[in-house]
Each structure stands twice: as structure tokens, then as C-alpha cells.
Amino acid sequence: MAKQPEEKTTTSKEKMLRGSAWMTAGSMFSRILGALYVIPWMMWFGRDRGQANALFAIGYNIYSIFLIISTAGIPGAVAKQVSHYNAMNEYKTGRKLFRSGLYLMVFMGVISAAALYLLAPWISTGDKDAIPVIRSLAWPLLVIPMMSLFRGFFQGYQDMAPSAVSQFIEQVARVIYMLVTAYWIMQVMHGSYVTAVAHSTFAAFIGAVASLLVLAWYYLRKRKEWDVLADNSADTLDISTRDMLMEMVRQAIPFIILDAGITIFQLVDQYTFFNMIDDFVVGTRATFNTLYSLFAFNANKLIMIIVSLAASMAITSIPLLSEAYTKRDFRDVRDQVDNTIELFFFIMIPSAIGMAAVAKPLYTIFYGYDFTGTLVLEFSSYTSIVLGLFTVLAAMLQGLYQNRLAIAYFVVGLVVKIVVQYPMIYLFKVFGPLMATAIGFMVASYLMINTMNNMFHLKVAELIKFFSETLLFALVMYAVCIGLQQVLYLFLNPASRVQSMLVIVLVAGVGATLYGYLVLKSRLGDQLLGSRIAGLRRRLRIK
């Protein structure tokens, strides 16, 4: 009997690792594909690429807020509630929640799509070219709420594969449509870049439809298995459809706010940067658009690849923590929180520092050689650690039903961001918004992790030790990568896209190999991955 909690913890850890693996794979492939399209896309826009970039960023920042409102935080909320009911052997109630939620999602999709379309002239930041771009993004809002409900339902069963696969298919369909229309309008028809950007944003609708079809196929495959669980459930709860929907909305509101956290910070930049930078830098709106696109679109597009790693862990942790909390197994809760934070350090820190190390060739491949752009990407890479940490910690607090605290801490961080925005832009110019964002999220993250430590008495000493070792290995990797990169640039042209690709392959390969060796040699990853990593060490004959 004494070993039961330990076995349960091991099971939870395996679920977390398996779920994180699926979501990480789906998210990484999607993000990488979503970044790679930029190379031909930018080339086809030619001299208008800077304006097209800014227009795309303005449209997507506004759309992101409407998207989160229209989905009403449904993936996280449904995953949390379904997992809660499943832990009580109330599978039938979870199915009822899903069916009721479909009606709500259709309603939310229609309302949010109509609102975005009609409000476009008033939320276009005074740029008339942004209006058709924003309106083209109303269409995906009709589909994405339903798609989100399906994903949340699967995640409630700790089944992450459908979400991961649908996410990848969504991105493939979206990118194909974007590239085909951009090439046709800009290269064949020699049309307006505004029209081409509007089609590029409309591609989100094409991707959403493809994703929904994949999820529907998975649902039909698994329906018989879920029917068996529902038939054998306790069936002791008698909750009306109205009460169920109200509970889902109540649980979803924190997800709306916190899922939009990074986007809300970016909107602060969108609506303050142009006026603030004008006080310190002489230039036209086109000049400021170019500066804005350096951090809001170019760098952001790339760092979100690694921030998605944190999002994958967050999605996986919510139903697992909800299940353990429902069962009042607080030892399991503490171990899951510790494991999730350590997994975050283990993956996120070397990924972010590694991206910073190859910022020059990476930026050149995607956007062409640019000294300032490279520096912005490198600094953004460091800030992505803070963005990812906030994402994970906010998700864990929600899984533990500490919604009000999570929102309160986010608001504190947002207020800090707004307060320091102007002085940071004064001191650091184009880096100012990034600095203000990092400070705001650091404050929020500290408050969150301090609360969880007070609640569950985390193994702080072990976490600090794990963080220190991970950071040390990542810095060693960084130093070696920078040194190798400098040697390669003695023979290669940093402004060449092809030669930059060669630099990335060589430097990233050496960096990943070195970090992997240090992790295996020091046995840093054993406590996370257990026998798997020990077996790998034996096969590689590392003592």
C-alpha cells in the first residue's frame, strides 16, 4: 500500500511525457511549416514585403483576440471538465457536455465572425489597407470554435494524437493555399499586395475546415470505445444542459484571458509602439512599420516555434492535474507540478538559447541578412523562455482550479508591462517592447510559482539545482556554437541564404549533439525520462 502513490505518480509522468510528445510533435511541425512558408512568401512580395509583413501582423493580432473569445477557452475548459467527470466515472456526463457545447460553439462562431467583419474599419489602427485583411479573417471564426471543442474533448481523455495530427493538417492546408494565392496574385497577375495578404489570411479558413474533417474522422473511429465507457459509468450526476453550459462558460472565461495573454501583450505594442517610438526616432509610418515588423512579425514568427513547446506541456498538464486534484491526491499534484517545470527547463532553455546562437543565419534564411533584425531575434529568443514559463504556470494554476489567482497575476503583469513600456522604448528603442513584455511576464510568473509552492510545498531545492545544471549545459552549448559559427563565417558569406542554411545545419547539429552528450553524461534527464534515457546512454556507451 505504501508504494501506491509512487506508482500513480509514475503513471501520471508517463501520461505527461506521452501527451507532451504528441502535442510537441504536432505543434513543432506546424510551427516550423508555418515559418518556412515565409521564405518564398517574402520573395514573391518583393519590395512590398515589409508593408505586407506589417499588414499581416496587424490583422493576425486582432484576429487572435477574436479567435480566443470565439473559442471561449474551450479546449482547456472542456479538457479540464471532461477529465474531472472521467475521474469520477461519469463518462456519460462528459459526452453530454460535448454535445451541448457544440450548439454553444456554433453560436459563438457566428457572433464573433459577424463582429469582426463589421468592426474591421474601427479596429484597423487607422490603416484602410488593414480592413480587407481583417475581414478575411472573419471566415475561419465560423469553423474554429467547433474544431476547438473536438480537440478539448479528446484532450480530456488524455488522447493528444487527434489534436496533434489535426494541427499539422490544418497548417499544411493553410500554407498551400497561402503560397498558391500569393504566387498567383503577385507573380502571375502582378496584383496588389493588399489583395495577396487578404488571401493569405483567408487561408486560416481553409486550414480550419481541413482540421475539422480530421477531428470528425477520429471521433467516428473512437465513438464505440467511448460508448462502452459511457454505458458502464456511474451515472449518478443529474446536471441540466443549461447548468452544464454555464459551468463550461464559467471554467472557460479564465482560459480566454490567459490563452490571450501573449496576444494581449502584443496588442499593447500594436497600439502604443507607433506613437511612442515617434517621440524618439525620426521616420515615416513606413519606417515604423518596418521596425514594428522586426519584433512583432519576423522574430515573433520564429520564437513562437519554441514557445509552442511550452504550450504543448500546458495542454497536457491541465487534464492530468485536474484529475489528480479531483481525487485529492496532493502528492501526485506536487510531483506533477515539479515534473512539468523540470520538463519545461529541460526542453525550453536549450531550445531558446540554441535559437539565439543561430540567430544570424536563421534570420538570413527567412528574411534576408539584416543586422538589427538578427539582434531582435536573438533578444526575442531569450524572452521566449519567460513567455513559455508564463504559459505553463498559468495552465497549471487553471488545472488546479485557481482561476482567479491566475487571472489576478496576469493582470498584475499586464499593468507592469504598460507602466514600463514607455521608459523601455526610450531606453532600448525597438527592443523596448520586448523588454517590457519580459518584465511583465516575469512578475506574473514569480507570483504564480510562489503560490503553487505555498499550496503544495514544491521541491524548490531540486528545481533550482535542475535549472542551474540545464542552464549551464545550454550556455556551454551556446559558447561552442558561437565559436564554430565565427569560424565558418571566415569562409562563408553571412548574407547568402544557401550558405546560411549550411551554417545552421552544422552549428545546430554540433550544438544538439553536445547538449545531448552533457545530459547523458551528467544523468540530468534520468529523473525525468527514467529507464528510457538510461538505455540510450548504455547503447551509446556513455559512462
TrEMBL record:
<feature type="transmembrane region" description="Helical">
    <location>
        <begin position="136"/>
        <end position="154"/>
    </location>
</feature>
<feature type="transmembrane region" description="Helical">
    <location>
        <begin position="405"/>
        <end position="424"/>
    </location>
</feature>
<feature type="transmembrane region" description="Helical">
    <location>
        <begin position="21"/>
        <end position="43"/>
    </location>
</feature>
<feature type="transmembrane region" description="Helical">
    <location>
        <begin position="343"/>
        <end position="367"/>
    </location>
</feature>
<feature type="transmembrane region" description="Helical">
    <location>
        <begin position="252"/>
        <end position="268"/>
    </location>
</feature>
<feature type="transmembrane region" description="Helical">
    <location>
        <begin position="498"/>
        <end position="520"/>
    </location>
</feature>
<feature type="transmembrane region" description="Helical">
    <location>
        <begin position="55"/>
        <end position="79"/>
    </location>
</feature>
<dbReference type="GO" id="GO:0005886">
    <property type="term" value="C:plasma membrane"/>
</dbReference>
<dbReference type="Pfam" id="PF01943">
    <property type="entry name" value="Polysacc_synt"/>
</dbReference>
<dbReference type="InterPro" id="IPR024923">
    <property type="entry name" value="PG_synth_SpoVB"/>
</dbReference>
<feature type="transmembrane region" description="Helical">
    <location>
        <begin position="202"/>
        <end position="220"/>
    </location>
</feature>
<keyword id="KW-1133">Transmembrane helix</keyword>
<keyword id="KW-0812">Transmembrane</keyword>
<feature type="transmembrane region" description="Helical">
    <location>
        <begin position="100"/>
        <end position="124"/>
    </location>
</feature>
<feature type="transmembrane region" description="Helical">
    <location>
        <begin position="302"/>
        <end position="322"/>
    </location>
</feature>
<keyword id="KW-0472">Membrane</keyword>
<feature type="transmembrane region" description="Helical">
    <location>
        <begin position="379"/>
        <end position="398"/>
    </location>
</feature>
<keyword id="KW-1003">Cell membrane</keyword>
<feature type="transmembrane region" description="Helical">
    <location>
        <begin position="470"/>
        <end position="492"/>
    </location>
</feature>
<feature type="transmembrane region" description="Helical">
    <location>
        <begin position="430"/>
        <end position="449"/>
    </location>
</feature>
<protein>
    <submittedName>
        <fullName>Polysaccharide biosynthesis family protein</fullName>
    </submittedName>
</protein>
<dbReference type="InterPro" id="IPR050833">
    <property type="entry name" value="Poly_Biosynth_Transport"/>
</dbReference>
<feature type="transmembrane region" description="Helical">
    <location>
        <begin position="175"/>
        <end position="196"/>
    </location>
</feature>
<dbReference type="InterPro" id="IPR002797">
    <property type="entry name" value="Polysacc_synth"/>
</dbReference>
